[in-house]
What does this fold into?
Amino acid sequence: MLTLSDYSGLVLEKLGEAEVIHLKKVSGPDYGGLLRSPEEGVDYGKLRDRLRQAAARLLEYLKIEEPIEIGVTPLEFRRVWDDPEGMVEVVLEKVDRVLGELEEERRRREAERRKREEARRLVNEEKMKLACMRSLNPEELKRCLMVGLVKFEVLPRLEEHIKRLGDTTYKVEEISPGEGFVFIFGPEERKPWIETLFYILDIRDIFDVLGVRDTLLVLDPERRREEIRRREEEVLKLEEELKKHREEPKEESLVEVMRDRVMPLLREIKRMDYILGIISKVKTLVLESGAIFIIQGWVSDKNQGILERKIRELQEETGELLLVQYEEPSHDEEVPSDASSALPPFLRPAFTLTSLRGWPSSHEVNPAWITILVFSFQFGMMFGDVGQGLVFLILGFILHRKYKRGMMSKLGVMFIPMGISATIFGFLYGEVFLVEGLLHPLLLSPMENVGRLMKIVLGIAVVELVFGLILSIINSIKSGHVLGALGEHGLGFILSIVGLYFGAQYFLSTGDIFALFSHWSFFMIIAGLILSFIEPVLTSLTVHKKLGFEAFGEGMGGLLMVFVESLANFFSFLRIAAFALAHASLAIAAHSMTHFMGPGGIILMNLIGMTFEFISSSVQSLRLLYYEFMGKFFHGGGIPFKPFQLKTQQVK
It folds into this structure.
């Protein structure tokens, strides 16, 4: 697609709305002389770091736990595309301004808080002094030895010490629920001892509470009344002042004030960071040479109509003609693919089973369905149990309904075919929650038909391996390497593995190893090994137009690989029978344990089966899937189709 540079932002906006094109780096002989975008020198990583640092400064004022949802307006995207550094500076200036205002607001509220605390302290202090003057009796004050402010919690200890003296008494006058004045009466020689006792029990002397002047005023009845009246007026005045401060916003409301100021700015920062992330990738793909703007990408046939509609909208908005050219990809060009779309939406989380091994290339068969079916089939053979299979089937539906993304959603979807397969093989084995005898086995009982089980497993091994090799042949033909269908991962391996299977059957029936060398299956193996040797030699002659020692070396390597790998793969499938027998052994153990543990024995064995054995069977199924089966045909060097998109929102 080619247009004027003035419309580059608008073009990308429309493509982002369409979400149908996978952008690629512009290439081709016609564009070799053009320059990359002049914006190439912009350090987008540094701009994004500055934005994130600004967001961190804002979050010092407000802790955000919920996710911040954003949407990008078309106008905002175009402005950032045209001037990324300028737009970032505008946002950072807003951040500095808001941070300054928030800091000023914080200081103001801190000052108000200190004023409130000081006013509250003064009120409490005046109330205390007023209560003290009201409670002190002038006559008692004159004749007492000492007066102090005591907390009621230490009174029992004070009383205990005073009782020991014998000639000393005390009296308590309450001034608040937790404390009051204690008057000590006794001879003058007891005063040093009482002073020590006040110090030990943390009793404040009357002179420390009221001061010398106020204490002396108490001794004069007339001046005492005047001082009490004056202090009552002072308390009322201070309480009025405290009420004014209490009318200011509470600390909790400050959080809401901050949220109203900070949240919009955090959304703007996140939008800017999102746009810069897109631009930093797109700028390396497009070409701009001052006057023109060029962009390339892939679009599927089914979405071509959507793209053309967006192009018409662009032409109507700009009044300019956009040059658009469609080309078929070259045979050796890797085209991005949306391989997961081969599955229905319900099963797409299970595509992880394929993507963990690699992304399907456009030149090979998409194994999305095949991997699910083969994996589940192998798992069911190892874990055949009607009851336990139904448990995982139900658990799969529950997880699928509850989780729509993440690992739990993938596990939930996979549990469904695994549970179905385990249930089917449970009927074939006649096993329900490790209890045998409730159902008649439709196929066989693993413990009673070990030989038959082995034969079935080896037959399945041959069928599965041949199927994988047929897929390998198809992939070789699709990629243009027709001769590859003959060798190591093609007809040569098929002949070897099939010959090995029938040779093993013949040996088991006759027991004569020497007779095997004259049986047709032996010659089938030899034919497969010869094809594996010849294929690299023929490829060297026809493709590279030469024949060297490298070709013979590759041929010998292919021959040895087929010989060793066919044996290893063939007998590796016996692990299916081994784990099927292990599951049946749990049933025997459960039956034995019920004799001395009752129902607890079978419950315990089922818990072991649905945890440890379930995991073991799953791992072994994956091993057979990825190595023995998919290793024959799947290379996984493809590119996921990721359409260019913008999280857009309408301007309100």
About this structure: The mean pLDDT is 83. Residues 2-90+259-318 form one domain. The longest strand covers residues 169-176.
